[in-house]
Amino acid sequence: MPELPDIEYIVKKITPAVSNRIIKEVSVKQPVVIRMIIPGAVTEILPGKHIISVQRHGPFLLFRMDTLDLVIHFMLEGRISIQYDKKSMKSTCLSIILDNGIFMHFSDRRLMMKIYVTEKNSYDKIPGFDTQGIDIMSNDFTLEYFLKCMEKKSCQVRVFLLDQSVLSAIGNAYADEILYNAGINPRKKIDDLDKKDKNGLFKSIRDVMQWGICEVEKANQPVEIKVRDHMKVRGHAGKPCIACSTIIRKIAVYGFDSYYCPGCQPVPENYFIQWK
Ligand SMILES: [Zn+2]
User: What confidence score (pLDDT) does residue 276 get?
Assistant: First the structure.
């Protein structure tokens, strides 16, 4: 799924092509991904609309228009691509043609992505939108606030990082990279973290996300490509850690694959680990 750095990149990359443009035409190949929150058909409602800006809200991509908003949740495998000709992807669900001749294709081979058409500034019918926690890239996300978020929490630290109602928004790949950067085992419980761990974790969230944003931008790939080459543990099971040469492992944490280095992120001695 596109994570925060990927969506930041999409916003930056597509803004010059799509903002201040008028939608000419819309074609739907997979109606199952479309959620109309206002009455009418997407093919009739969107043409003629003026795209004012593109923004990220947590894991959502927002096209803000003059009278309505188009909100995208990519889920696991949703993609967006920008083309100067009709060429769509095999799994294209919805295509939008703009007045500058650009084609925006939304695709998902699993048909899990969601494309919401809603009234301007009205998001209460979009699951998970209004309940996003603090944006981890905003200035309001301070150490003090972060420490407060962890109060009275006893879950595993990786589960905590993925809770978007608290922190908006960390996905599976960057959760692994953040924990690796902080040297914290993904199964460690919040109430077992000491002050140093918590301070380090806060710093890692900001540093790793900023690093991810820079790396994705540096790769300069088309927006439909998921850039993961810079990752240090995610997807590296069986390979040696670049810092300590210990072999990176893949385990399940709360049902999700998690990658970590047993050397840099030691398992607390009193923890029982079920190896996957
Ligand atoms: Zn290591």
Answer: 55
Q: What is the pLDDT of residue 153?
A: 92
CA–centroid distance, 250 to ligand 1, in Å, is: 13
Token output for 184? 């914290």
pTM recorded for the entire structure: 0.94
Residue ranges near ligand 1 (ion) with Cβ within 5 Å: 241, 243-244, 246, 261, 263-264
Residue 264 pLDDT more than 90? yes
- Inter-residue long-range contacts of 40-46, CB under 8 Å, 24+ positions, other chains counted: 42/94, 42/115, 42/117, 45/117, 46/70, 46/96, 46/117
CA of 262 relative to ligand 1 center, distance in Å: 7
Residue 18 has pLDDT above 80, yes or no: yes
Instruction: Write down how long the chain is.
Output: 276
Going from the Cα of 249 to the center of ligand 1, the distance in angstroms, rounded, reads: 10
Q: What is the mean pLDDT of the chain?
A: 95
Q: Does the CA dihedral 168-172-178-183 come out positive or negative?
A: positive
Question: Of 263, 150, 251, 224, which Cα lies nearest the Cα of 2?
Answer: 224
Give the integer Cα–Cα distance in Å for 96 and 94.
7
Residue 246 CA to ligand 1 centre (angstroms): 5
Q: Residue 26's closest CA among 76, 89, 97, 82?
A: 97
Domains annotated on the chain, with CATH = 4-119 (3.20.190.10), 134-260 (1.10.8.50)
* Span 185-201, pLDDT tens digits: 999 999 999 999 999 99
Contacts of 78 (CB under 8 A, 6+ apart): 1, 2, 72, 106, 107, 108, 112, 113
Q: pLDDT per residue over 89-108, tens digit each? A: 789 999 999 999 999 999 99
